[in-house]
Amino acid sequence: MSLKKAEDIKTIGLVGLGLMGQGICSCLIAYGFNVIAYSRTKAREQETIKHVEESLVKMVNRGILKPEEKKGWQQRFKYVNDLTLIEGSEFVVETVGESLELKRSIYDTLESVLDEDTVIATNTSGISISLLQEKMKHKKRFIGMHWAEPAEITHYLEISRAKDTEDEYVQLAVEIGKRLGKKPTVLNFDISGFISNRLMYAMLREAIHLVESGVADVATVDRSFRNDIGWWASLFGPFRWMDITGLPIYAKVMKGIFPDLDNRTKVPELMKEKVESGALFYSYENGKEKLWEEVWTEFTHDIREIVEKYETWIDLDK
Prior knowledge:
Elements: E1 11-15, H1 19-30, E2 34-38, H2 43-61, H3 67-70, E3 77-80, E4 91-94, H4 100-113, E5 119-122, H5 129-133, E6 142-146, E7 158-161, H6 167-179, E8 185-187, H7 194-212, H8 218-227, H9 229-232, H10 238-245, H11 247-257, H12 269-277, H13 288-309, H14 311-314
Parallel strand pairs: 1-2, 1-4, 2-3, 4-5, 5-6, 7-8
Antiparallel strand pairs: 6-7
Helix pairs in contact: 1-2
């Protein structure tokens, strides 16, 4: 059986229905795919239906979808609690917890029921794609496909080839991404964390270092980041930002500041303390954490509209 073209693929399998899986499901449904969704937890079925319905309503209200495109969507959603029942899928996205053993067991089952040309894509952000690929029978079709929340709104999608992935499967994933309203980026080779996570975690490490060092408190660091980097990052990437704001000065500043930046390789103590105690960086009383999540969704819709307004300029870096 030969590799299908992206435009001919109608049914996508989804393994894992946590928060990210529910967002990915919303995206797949919104852009016209049939979805066969697997979760070990039966309660995830109703959670996902609720999540998708709410997401589609917002997309209609924002003009991303037409009302008729939302109608009857549940007929295109099928929940299964037996992984072998995902066999009718023409492309599969796996988004379960970051466990090498768990993911490999899932791939074993998938490979027993899927055609050898059916792409298996993992949403992992921390495990090597090539390591996950090692034990597979048909390595050529395995890729990394890194999504961002809210998955149905953002343009973000990073695609990474593993050691033995063949080009035609990478290109198929790119074309599927474009059908989903994404602007896919492709990595030349497998690297832990992809691009965006590596940039983000370098920033997170330095942010924690500033707080631990007593330079400023959490709210102050957040405010400074939000009002500077957060102001320009949706229009410029780091390289165009350096070009436009004066490249030579960055080389001079790097010489002075790089020796002072945090370069630890272990989890910061402040992070350990928060995780071990179950505490967060802020206090969220009276359901404010949920309100922040709702505001974040609305904000991403606004950002999408702004980005699309300046799309001609943003796409100059293709």
